[in-house]
Write a structure and sequence with these properties.
Length: 120
């Protein structure tokens, strides 16, 4: 359920980015280029969030169905998340502590006997 909620949140963020107008104050000579660049960045960021949302929902379905592949993909993502959050904390970004704790809790949960039996 947590993975599905994250996937839905990514989809919502993608739609919000695509539906938001960004304004940047620039000189008149750069105005037409700036609008094109802002639209491009907005499309890329919104598209990335939507793709992440769809992939996360696919992983959630695989996990829900008890797929070993889904569990493996989730473990890879969690390990990457843990590494990035540790790196962010070392650089002074203390907001990554919450994400780090959640990722570690998820890893611990995946190694509980009942969970291992579910994916067995």
């Amino acid at each position: 359920m947590i993975v599905a909620a994250v996937g839905i949140w990514y989809l919502v963020q993608g739609v919000m980015v695509l539906g938001t107008d960004f304004s940047v104050i620039v000189a008149e000579e750069l105005e037409e280029f700036t609008d094109d660049i802002i639209d491009l960045v907005k499309s890329i960021v919104g598209g990335v969030y939507i793709v992440l949302g769809v992939l996360t929902l696919i992983i959630a379905f695989l996990i829900y169905s008890g797929s070993k592949g889904g569990r493996t993909i989730l473990m890879i993502i969690l390990v990457i998340s843990i590494l990035f959050n540790v790196y962010a904390i070392v650089l002074g970004g203390y907001t990554g502590i919450i994400e780090l704790v959640l990722a570690v809790v998820c890893v611990v949960m995946l190694y509980q006997p009942a969970v291992k039996a579910y994916f067995g």
